[in-house]
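User: For this week's homework, look closely at the record that follows, marking any run of repeated tokens, and judge whether sequence predicts the tokens.
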Amino acid sequence: MKKQLALLAALAAISTGLHAQDSYVGVGLPGLLTLGYAYPLTSSVGLRGEYAGGLSVNKDGNQDGVNVTGTFKASRMGAFADWFPMGGAFRLVGGLTFNDIKADFNGVGSGTSTINGQTVNMSGETYNVKVKFPDTTAYLGVGYGHQKSDAKGLGFYADLGVMVGSFTADTSTSLVANGKVLQSDVDAQNQKIRDSLSSLSVLPSASLGLLYRY
């Protein structure tokens, strides 16, 4: 995260004394609160750095005989290049995101469940799954705002795009140590989870808010 913060600082430093730039704040997903800095190089091209974070969701439930406590957290840093093909506020966006997006599901058994086709007594057993989005992903999207302009003051921006990457999953459980299943059964069940996640090859991203040009 220190490298990403340094990126934002560098963008701000090189722009000192140059023509109009803007800072912005917004809301969206997956990061909830967005803070950023944009510097238009020309009427056609601009650079941006931003942080989006603050999203944390907790959810409890029961799944296949397991009482599950789930936690999802998401934050990211991003470095983007904006292209304004029509010379106005509409832009195409490409860049990289540096992500901390993950979900933890911690389960304690309360009944029976199916592990790799076997019915298993889960009472008192733990079964935990950690799901994680890649640390670094490409970003593609469209947006509005941050164009080169001599007008100072408040404005509006919006972004919609995708981060290109698939979630991974890892499992830990007490079932193997207690002799209820083999490690190969757990590995096979984990592979099923990974296969289901692999179809999600992109993670949508959206943000809108206010900018201040100075």
Notes: The chain is about 15% helix and 60% strand. The radius of gyration is 22 Å. The first helix runs from residue 2 to 14. The first strand starts at residue 22 and ends at 29.
